[in-house]
Structures are given as C-alpha cells and as structure tokens.
C-alpha cells in the first residue's frame, strides 16, 4: 500500500480490511512524508505500533 491510500483509509468513516503480517489492523495515523503508519490489531487497541505503509495490505 502507498502512503496516500493509507491516509485515505485512516480518514474514512468506513472500516477497510487492512492486514499487517496476516493480522487485521486499524490504521490510526499516517505520516505521509516518511511513509509510516501507526496501527493496532482490530481486537487489541492497546497494542499500537508504527510500521511502513508498504507492509500494509488492503484486502
């Protein structure tokens, strides 16, 4: 995924199906300049991490 699409998903009121390492995640924030997204698993909002947007897949 690219940073622009990740930003679109994070700004959308609709929940997109995004996967990181085989796990469904929610995109909280995207820093488009560096291509990093703050995410957490959909079932564990306390497990936040920052990852490259290129490691995210939209399904």
Using brief descriptors, characterize the structure shown.
59 residues, alpha+beta, five-stranded antiparallel β-sheet, 15% helix
Low-pLDDT stretches: none
Task: Give the integer mean of the pLDDT values.
Answer: 96
End-to-end CA span: 11 Å
Give the strand line-up of the largest sheet: 4-3-2-1-5
Number of helices: 1
Order of helices and strands: HEEEEE
Radius of gyration: 10 Å
Portion in strands: 35-45%
- Helical content stands at 10-25%
Which structural class should the secondary elements be placed in?
Answer: alpha+beta
**Main sheet characteristics:** 5 strands, antiparallel
Overall form: globular
Number of strands: 5
Question: Overview of this structure, please?
Answer:
The chain has 59 residues and is an alpha+beta fold. Helix content is 15%, strand content 42%. The protein contains 1 helix and 5 strands; from the N terminus they run H-E-E-E-E-E. It has one helix at 3-11, and strands at residues 18-20, 23-31, 36-41, 49-52, 56-58. The protein has a 5-stranded antiparallel beta sheet with strand order 4-3-2-1-5. It is globular and about 30 Å long. The termini are close together. The mean pLDDT is 96.
